[in-house]
């Protein structure tokens, strides 16, 4: 609760520090506009046209519905990864054997290209929600798992000893010693997994479903509608940026403030 | 009367004998110092006496109700600020958050930490500041038995003297019993009733020095003469491998 207030209190200062980021985004848009002037509207529509298309897209109920579907799939997949990955990672971290056994499996999971998972999932689950959600989970769960595992494995005995001398009760030990340390590993993993989930969901939709942002993207491609394709990309990137910079980054700053 | 009594204590890490047949006793209200070269097993002895390490051979009787340690490495929680670190032991005891904050602030100021330091995280503290926070965390719980493991090693002489004076006040009132590890012989002489000389490889007590003059009556001259006397003691010279030309 206290940290939540602190996050809110530091928020204006944080926003102020965002001017640099905004300047760099404008620079990027300027470069994009130059690209448009060189290559023409067919290859690279201008930023203005793209944002225009984006605005009309958002007025189209079909599009917003598709966006909701995509969001739902991403959140379901990410939510399951978050809960299950964290739980398994913590569990594995507390047992040496489990962490040794799980390492190679995680390496295989992480090394496997997502596109291969999509193909397999299409065979197993057909076209639809399950395929997309499954792919999101296999791609993002290992990231969360590794974060939780590392957080647990790196807990230090010296703090345990210190706590024992002060006869710290179990609950307090958990909240004051284990949790802050583990959370500082798990939280960045959650953020990384969320980014992964968002990318994978669109890719899986593009190949395996007839609705959602990915499907819209596939449609735009088949109709050579570059402006729509770009607008959808901008929407995807924009949503991820909002999530990252408005919600996650301030929390991350608070969580990691004590770190070197 | 509570006491810490160690009898025929031996300890090894694997095949390395670290401590060999240690015997001594600390009575309530006493200050007993352990001096000896580093690597001699002082910290290991402290961990055994405080119950952090399981005893292998011999007997340890520790009948003090409460105890606290200022560890050699300060062991401050990196995610807690100065005040919350100091108040950590109080929180474990169930002291209300208002009271523990007040007590932590009071002792912090007494230890020459400044109000502007209160919100700092350990990463922003100097070695000496961390040691003071760690010492304050142990002391603020008002333990009956206090273990100090080279608590002043990173402090300059002025601050060291101030904290020693603080310890002196506590022992004058006989409020506390102290098991004190130091490598500063002068400091040991100023503060202790007894000094145990721990020789290394394997760690054993080769000599015990006792001081009858109460701590409050030990002036600089007393401390200097006693220090000179100890430094010319044959066992001390051999244990620390001092060579005077
Ligand atoms: N956890 C441990 N495992 C193995 N050896 C240890 C451990 N802790 C200390 N030692 C060894 O025990 C000896 C005494 O260490 P210590 O008690 O820290 O000495 P001191 O505090 O006098 O410097 C050293 O040789 C050290 O390497
Ligand atoms: Mg030591």
Describe this structure in words.
Chain A has 260 residues and is mainly α. In chain A, 87% of the residues lie in helices and 0% in strands. Chain A is built from eleven helices and no strands. The longest helix of chain A has 39 residues. The radius of gyration of chain A is 22 Å and the shape is globular. Chain B contains nine helices and nine strands. Chain B starts with a strand and ends in a 5-residue tail after the last helix. The mean pLDDT of chain B is 93. The chains are: A mainly alpha (260), B alpha/beta (245). At the A-B interface, helix 8 and helix 9 of A face strand 5 and helix 3 of B. Magnesium ion binds next to helix 1 of chain B.
What best-fitting shape of chain B do the alpha-carbon axes yield? globular
Spatial shape of chain A: globular
Instruction: Tell me the fraction of residues in β-strands of chain A, as a range.
Output: under 5%
| Approximate strand percentage of chain B | 15-25%
Rg over C-alpha atoms of chain B, rounded to the nearest angstrom: 18 Å
Q: How many runs of DSSP E, i.e. beta strands of chain A?
A: 0
What labels describe this entry?
heterodimer; A: 260 residues; mainly alpha; MetI-like fold; 11 helices; 87% helix; B: 245 residues; alpha/beta; Rossmann fold; 2 domains; 6-stranded mixed sheet; 3-stranded antiparallel sheet; 9 helices; 25% strand; globular; binds adenosine-5'-diphosphate; binds magnesium ion
Task: Please give a quick description of this structure.
By secondary structure, chain A is mainly alpha-helical. Chain A contains 11 helices and no strands.
What are the SSEs and their pairings?
The complex is a heterodimer of chains A (260) and B (245).
Chain A (H helix, E strand, L loop, with lengths): L1 H15 L2 H21 L7 H13 L1 H34 L1 H16 L2 H12 L3 H25 L3 H9 L4 H39 L4 H10 L3 H31 L4
Helix pairs in contact in A: 1-11, 3-11, 4-5, 4-7, 4-9, 5-7, 6-7, 6-9, 7-9, 9-10, 9-11, 10-11
Chain B lengths: L2 E11 L2 E12 L3 E5 L6 H8 L7 E6 L4 E4 L11 H5 L1 H5 L4 H14 L16 H13 L5 E5 L7 H16 L4 E5 L3 H7 L2 E6 L4 E7 L9 H12 L2 H7 L5
The structure holds adenosine-5'-diphosphate and magnesium ion.
The site of adenosine-5'-diphosphate (ADP) has 9 residues of chain B, from α1.
């Amino acid at each position: 609760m206290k940290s939540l207030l602190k996050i809110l209190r530091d928020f204006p200062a944080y926003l102020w520090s965002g001017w640099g980021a905004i300047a760099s985004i404008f620079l990027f848009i300027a470069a994009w506009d130059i690209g448009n002037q060189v290559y023409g509207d067919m290859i690279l529509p201008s930023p203005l046209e793209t944002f225009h298309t984006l605005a009309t897209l958002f007025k189209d109920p079909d599009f917003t519905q598709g966006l909701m579907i995509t969001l739902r799939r991403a959140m379901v997949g990410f939510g399951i990864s978050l809960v299950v990955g964290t739980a398994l990672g913590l569990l594995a971290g507390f047992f040496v054997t489990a962490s040794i056994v799980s390492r190679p499996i995680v390496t295989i999971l992480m090394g496997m290209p997502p596109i291969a998972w999509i193909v397999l999932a299409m065979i197993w689950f057909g076209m639809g929600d399950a395929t997309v959600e499954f792919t999101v989970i296999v791609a993002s769960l290992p990231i969360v798992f590794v974060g939780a595992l590392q957080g647990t494995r790196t807990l230090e005995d010296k703090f345990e000893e210190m706590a024992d001398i002060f006869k710290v009760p179990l609950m307090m030990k958990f909240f004051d010693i284990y949790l802050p340390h583990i959370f500082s590993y798990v939280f960045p993993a959650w953020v990384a997994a969320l980014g992964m989930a968002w990318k994978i969901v669109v890719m899986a939709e593009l190949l395996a479903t007839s609705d959602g942002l990915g499907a819209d993207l596939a449609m735009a491609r088949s109709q050579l509608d570059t402006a729509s394709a770009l607008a959808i990309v901008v929407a995807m990137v924009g949503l991820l940026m909002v999530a990252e910079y408005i919600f996650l980054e301030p929390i991350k700053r608070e969580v990691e403030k004590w770190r070197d | 009367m509570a006491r810490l009594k160690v009898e025929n204590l031996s300890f090894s890490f694997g095949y390395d004998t670290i401590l060999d047949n240690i015997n001594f006793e600390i009575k309530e209200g006493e200050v007993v110092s352990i001096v000896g070269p580093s690597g001699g097993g002082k910290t290991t002895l402290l961990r055994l006496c405080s119950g952090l390490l399981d005893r292998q051979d011999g007997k340890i009787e520790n009948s003090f109700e409460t105890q606290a340690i200022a560890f050699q490495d300060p062991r401050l929680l990196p995610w807690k600020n100065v005040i919350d670190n100091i108040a950590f032991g109080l929180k474990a005891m169930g002291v209300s958050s208002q009271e523990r904050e007040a007590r932590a602030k009071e002792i912090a100021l007494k230890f020459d930490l400044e109000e502007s330091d209160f919100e700092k995280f350990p990463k922003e503290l100097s070695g000496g500041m961390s040691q003071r926070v760690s010492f304050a965390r142990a002391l603020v719980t008002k333990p009956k038995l206090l273990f100090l493991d080279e608590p002043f090693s990173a402090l300059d002489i002025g601050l060291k003297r101030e904290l020693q004076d603080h310890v002196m006040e506590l022992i004058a009132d006989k409020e506390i019993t102290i098991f004190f590890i130091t490598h500063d012989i002068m400091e040991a002489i100023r503060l202790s009733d007894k000094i145990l000389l721990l020789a290394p490889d394997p760690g054993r007590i080769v000599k015990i020095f006792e001081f009858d003059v109460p701590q409050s009556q030990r002036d600089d001259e007393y401390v200097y003469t006693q220090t000179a006397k100890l430094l010319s003691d044959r066992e001390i010279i051999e244990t620390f491998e001092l060579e005077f030309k």
